[in-house]
Amino acid sequence: MHEFKQALANKQPLLGTFVKTPHFHNTEVLSKVGFATICLDAEHAAFDRRDLDTCILAAKANQQHVLVRIPNDHHDTILNTLDLGADGIVVPHVKTAQQLENIVKQCYYGHNGRGYAGSTRMAGYTTNNMQQNLAHNANNTVVIAQIEDIDALDQLDAICQVKGVDCLFIGRMDLTVALGETDPNAPKVLEAVTKIVQIANKYELATGMFIANLDELDHWLKQHVSLFLLGSDHSFMLAGARQLQATFKQSTRAQ
């Protein structure tokens, strides 16, 4: 089993980040840093299939584990993403166990499952045989269900028991909006997030999240949240630029 998939199963702390820019340069640069994974955000950024193709290639050239947050749970979306060589998918707005069961089925080869092609990047462009491709698919593919809707909160026990899902990723901002709040630290929001974590822990299923305030990190680690997708290429650029400006202003005042 791939070390990332195994680490998820073992609930080892894992740090990744989002990539919001649909150009391979940003992916290539961040692949040099040593993140456990990077997640191309094709849900909220302007990635088309060609962009995903080149960005996944850039990640693979640097032996970087790469996820894609896909825009929907359609069969062709899942198939294209995995054929391009993504190591896994983050699927937004998972609301029911039945929906998740169908998603998982589309991620794996088998009866009524993922369509097979031996000519893709994942398949080594025909240089791997079918047995190797089936084994790679079974042992490496990561399926992460994003929980971010009120509808899903009453379905969590069933969702957590779906065979083949590796992790629940908590969409806290969407939950904030869905619950009629504007503050992700509102009591109703924190109650919902805690509920997701506790039920997932009951079934020994990994959980992940994005947090804007890193002061929360220790708390969620103690709650056994293990996957953190923090920051993005955009936030790194903004933070670096602001730090540069602040340093420059401080130095010029001293003159």
Automatic annotation (TrEMBL):
Keyword annotations: Lyase, Metal-binding
GO molecular function: aldehyde-lyase activity; metal ion binding
Pfam family, one: HpcH_HpaI
Any one GO cellular component localisation term in the record: cytoplasm
UniProt-listed InterPro entries: Aldolase/citrate-lyase_domain, HpcH-HpaI_aldolase, Pyrv/PenolPyrv_kinase-like_dom, Pyrv_kinase-like_dom_sf
HpcH/HpaI aldolase/citrate lyase domain boundaries: 17-234
Family affiliation: Belongs to the HpcH/HpaI aldolase family.
Protein name: HpcH/HpaI aldolase
